[in-house]
Amino acid sequence: MGATFRATYVDRTAFFSVQGELDLAVREQLRWWLTDLTDIGLDALLVDVSGVTFVDCSCLRTLDEARRRLERGHARLEIVASSYSFGLVSGLAGYGWPAPPVPARSAASPPSHRAVQDRQDHVEGVRRTDRVDVERVAGRGGLDGEAAHGVAH
Q1: Are 43 and 78 in contact (CB under 8 A)?
Q2: Distances, alpha carbon 74 to alpha carbons 14, 45, 117, in Å
Q3: Residues 73-95 as b or e (16 or more Cβ within 10 Å = b)
């Protein structure tokens, strides 16, 4: 899919926006943009990654390298807007960038692994000797409406 990059400048502050997928295929292009931006003597690089739909750790590392270059010059890189995907992956990778907002769960979205596990624990507690059909418990989205109580086989 790729990514789209855009930079604007106001005085010694640059606003850099990224949309699309940040993966190995675009890492060098991201590095090129960030190197150019960090080499022009900025006070701040404000990054908007709210349009990022996928990010891998190589691109997170590239952003972190740019942050460190700017800090050596007494400037800063700040993530000012983040997509859920970017915030989640960067948090899990330990970069400490903004935590993602919790997305609203629509009726069509599948239950989380934790919700399935909680439900499975509940069902197993009720009928510990019965095997639980996890597909039935998950109800393929039926946790919200359909009551699923242990299904013995």
Answers
A1: no
A2: 15, 12, 47
A3: eebebebeebbebbbebbeeeeb
User: How does pLDDT run across 35-91, given as a tens digit for each residue?
Assistant: 999 999 899 999 999 999 999 999 999 999 999 999 999 999 999 999 998 998 998
Determine, yes or no, domain membership for 98: no
**Cβ neighbours of residue 114 under 8 Å, at least 6 residues apart?**
none
Identify the domain containing residue 73 by its residue range.
3-92
User: Which one of 92, 124, 139 terminates a domain?
Assistant: 92
Whole-model pTM: value is 0.64
Question: Would you say residue 99 lies in a domain?
Answer: no
